[in-house]
Amino acid sequence: MNTKDLVVFNKNTGEIIDGITILTPEDKLLQRQMINLKKQKEINWISSGEENFIFYLFNKHFDDLSSQSIVRLIYIATYIDYSNNILCYDNKVLLTKKDIKKLMLLSDSVFKRWFNEMINKKYIIQKENNFYITDKYFRKGQLNKNLSDYKNSKYTRIYINAVRKLYLTTKSTSHSVLGYIFQLIPFVNLQWNIVCNNPLEPDKDLINPLTIGEFCDIIGYDKKNAKRLIKIIASIKFEWKNKIQRFCSYIYDSDITNMMIFINPNIFYSGDNFSEVEVLGVFFK
Fold it and tell me: DSSP secondary structure string, the chain?
């Protein structure tokens, strides 16, 4: 005779819920199937051709870089290969310095300053004629959490095609504005992509959004120009799946100080259930 366990179980989703349910062997099988299906849906989404991603580890956070240098580094990091972080095209052809310059769309002088900074600060590593991105911040493929560098790391998934389209459709003079948002990644709620003081809070009703003043303090921006900054960020758009989307959106009632900043989850997302935040897509059309 099989023993029945007392558990809290939703037969439709395989998730634990409030209340007590008697779980039969058939129920256990159904639960495993539903959970596996849910995981597979997530795997299929993040592994599809348009949703390839790199991991960005942000337990350390570019304190020695300007905001425009940060976004340029994140952009070129989308060209790393699996396992060894070497820079290459999607067809595996290795990037030369000339190729990197072509991809960056920067003037000769701006590229030279940025590239030398990346080399000198070891964000880009040159070995003979090949170039690598430091794996302290970026990885492509599965993270080995048994390694000491990654075991306690916080990370998000940065979606390759979306970031490239965002970069390529944004003027180089606005790269600093993109960088401001990437600087806020440690403050982005894992499940809801809201910039907040409690990024680990799963209940969206309990999220404590950052105020405009706190936002400016974090990125080192003059609070007097906060409204101008918000207007500029709201104007940044890119094409995604044949639709124009915003990088960020804002929601507030009559008081702008209670504003909530939503980051487009097609750019980066840390959570384990994209369907929960997918509804936010209406804010980015």
Answer: -PPPEEE---TTT----SS-EEE-HHHHHHHHHHHHHHHHHHHHHHHSGGG-EEEEE-SS--TTS-HHHHHHHHHHHTTBPTTT-BBB-TTSPBPPHHHHHHHHT--HHHHHHHHHHHHHTTSEEEETTEEEE-TTTEE-S---TTSHHHHT--EEEEEHHHHHHHHHTS-GGGHHHHHHHHHTGGGB-TTT-BBBS-TT---GGG--BPPHHHHHHHHT--GGGHHHHHHHHHH-EEEETTEEEESEEEE-SS-GGG-EEEE-TTTEE--S-HHHHHGGGGGG-
Q: Residue 197 has what pLDDT? A: 92
Top CATH class of 54-165 equals mainly alpha
Domain boundaries in the chain?
5-47, 54-165, 184-285
pLDDT digits 0-9 by tens, 169-218: 998 888 998 888 888 888 899 888 889 999 989 888 898 988 888 888 88
pTM for the predicted model, two decimal places: 0.76
Name the more confident of 90 and 275. 90
